[in-house]
Specification:
By secondary structure, the protein is of the alpha/beta class. It has one domain: Protein-Tyrosine Phosphatase, Chain A (Alpha-Beta Complex). Helix content is 51%, strand content 13%. It has a 5-stranded mixed β-sheet with strand order 1-2-5-3-4, sandwiched between helices. The longest helix has 18 residues. The N terminus is likely disordered. One of its GO terms (molecular function) is hydrolase activity. Keywords: Hydrolase, Signal. InterPro entries: Prot-tyrosine_phosphatase-like.
Length: 174
């Protein structure tokens, strides 16, 4: 009977561990050279364009998903991310014309990741698109403090007129 109890307890702990939300292991992070890297929360990071080594470090640190906002052929990065066990999503956000549809797709991906307890890297070339999208997600979907989220974005860059207009459109729509 004691043996059965130990087996049952072990099985329960294993199920709990599998269902526990992932968290970024900041002790494993060594992303030197990764432009404008920012930890937004235990489950969200954003950055400029990562190289293969950065992706490997991020995967080992608990990142499960990559959202790449750069337009164009991104198959090489997709292959690397998926070979490291990360889900990969590309949303081709036009620098001169970001759209509500782009943000809605981003929101869908981020909500799925949140529901699955995953850690997400959002990136673009310099983390300008990325920081704007993470800011908007934090404010419109997670109801985080606007000033805190905005300060994080503005630590990376100050949005130009196109992006200020886009940010206001998204906030108004959400």
């Amino acid at each position: 009977m004691k043996y059965m109890y130990v087996l049952f307890l072990g099985a329960c702990l294993a199920v709990m561990a599998l269902n526990a939300p992932a968290k970024l292991n900041q002790n494993e992070l060594n992303v030197s050279g990764l432009k404008n890297f920012q930890i937004n929360s235990e489950t969200m990071v954003s950055a400029g364009l990562p190289d293969n080594t950065h992706l490997e470090v991020l995967a080992k640190s608990g990142v499960n998903r990559v959202v790449d906002l750069i337009p164009g052929d991104r198959q090489a990065e997709r292959q690397i991310a998926e070979s490291l066990g990360m889900q990969y999503h590309n949303i081709s956000v036009d620098w001169h014309n970001p759209t509500l549809a782009d943000f809605e797709r981003y929101t869908d991906i981020m909500n799925e990741a949140k529901d699955n307890g995953e850690v997400v890297l959002t990136h673009c070339k310099l983390n300008w698109r990325g920081s704007a999208f993470t800011y908007l997600y934090r404010v419109t979907q997670l109801n985080e403090d606007e000033a805190t989220a905005r300060a994080d974005m503005e630590a990376i860059w100050t949005p130009n007129e196109t992006w200020r207009d886009f940010i206001e459109k998204v906030k108004t729509a959400n």
